[in-house]
Here is the input.
Amino acid sequence: KSLPRLPVPKLEDTIRRYLAAQRPLLNDEQYSNTEKVAHDFQSGVGKQLHEELVALDKNNKHTSYISAPWFDMYLSARESVVLNFNPFMSFNPDPKPEYNDQLVRATNMVCSAVRFMETLRAGLLEPEVFHLNPAKSDTDSFKKLIRWVPPSISWFGAYMVNAYPLDMSQYFRLFNSTRIPKYKRDELLTDDKGRHLLVVRRGNLYVFDALDRDGSLIKPAEVQAHLKYILSDSTKAPSFPLGILTSENRDTWAGLRQKLMEAGNGEALHLVDSALFCLCLDEEVL
Here is the structure.
């Protein structure tokens, strides 16, 4: 709430930036044609569309003008989410060799992720800030000072020292969230009542409660015991693992999911959808 809203850029600035981006990609004839079309748009229908966009922005001050179109673009794309949309992070091996054992590392990552979630939901997570001058802004003294500044202008105080707070409004979707396939446009689902973790191994799906009834992390030894059991399970990989369907074209997956629902698998699919997150215990070493 303390961040300033993203302003709607002037139409002429958008056209100028667009043409600047096209110039290196086009020959003179192509660029000349593109320039004419862009200027015709600017003086024609573009002017009306820009006025409508500004009016829409003024009537929706609780969000950004770009938020709804971005979600429409993201959720309406029908390509497989694998590689096209799913981001990932790669972690370096732990400095302590004994911590690189799959069971130990998986246990540590689960416990750390849940503790992060608890901090986030308690409102105690430190804000994400991009520091251009960390010697001044990424210090205990500055953090103590900025706490006393009213939220409505705290961003200005950060800007004064070249520190730029980042939007964290989507962090709540880090846990208990999934993308449900639907025809033409998917839906985002978040169900924070789920206390269980989803684990995938050899294409088989497992769940166990990683939170107790009070919503707190169970003992790390219990997490380790659950994961140890899963790793020792001799169940063979199915001929057609269910998870493969999620890599399909989104409309194809939506139709297949609907058939699974109609076949009485709604409860099982809800367990998958509402899990804290999914842990994949691959056997391959990358």
The chain has three domains: 11-65, 126-167, 174-280. The two ends are 41 Å apart (CA to CA). The first strand starts at residue 129 and ends at 131.
